[in-house]
Amino acid sequence: MAKKKASGGTPATVALTAAGMEFTVHAYEHDPASASYGEEAARALGVSPDRVFKTLVADVDGELTVAVVPVAGSLDLKALAAAVGGKRAAMADPAAAERTTGYVRGGISPLGQRRRLRTVLDASASSHATICVSAGRRGLEVELAPGDLMALTGAVLAAVARG
Fold this sequence. Notes:
Blueprint: H1 11-18, E1 24-27, H2 37-45, E2 53-60, E3 63-70, E4 74-75, H3 77-83, E5 89-91, H4 94-101, E6 118-122, E7 131-137, E8 140-144, H5 146-153, E9 156-158, E10 161-162
Parallel strand pairs: 3-6, 6-9
Antiparallel strand pairs: 1-8, 2-3, 2-5, 4-10, 7-8
């Protein structure tokens, strides 16, 4: 992986460049009719769905929290709450997620958010040298080492995905 320049990039790629992280940007033609943004990305990039992670925003005891889980699975809300020391979790209101992160649904990145949220990365990420996450817009993914994602977001690693 080579370091990419962030000129004209998204807040996610700008944050990665500013931090001196190594990453690769992968662009693909987004199909607005696609039912799943993450699965579409995996297919378009020819990457196994267990290496492409989606960014979900949940409300844990009144605080927005980011969960980064493989697109092939789903988020275990109870496990997410436990991972951050909370009692209850529910998916966040999409408008609140967009407003708080600065990204649109289907393009929410765990990186470069308008307001940094608590972040939990599913433990399965540690079994891969690199993973792909949204680079901040539909049709754009960034590939990086899970440890770099954790370092830049302050994420904790926990088993929060099922399936």
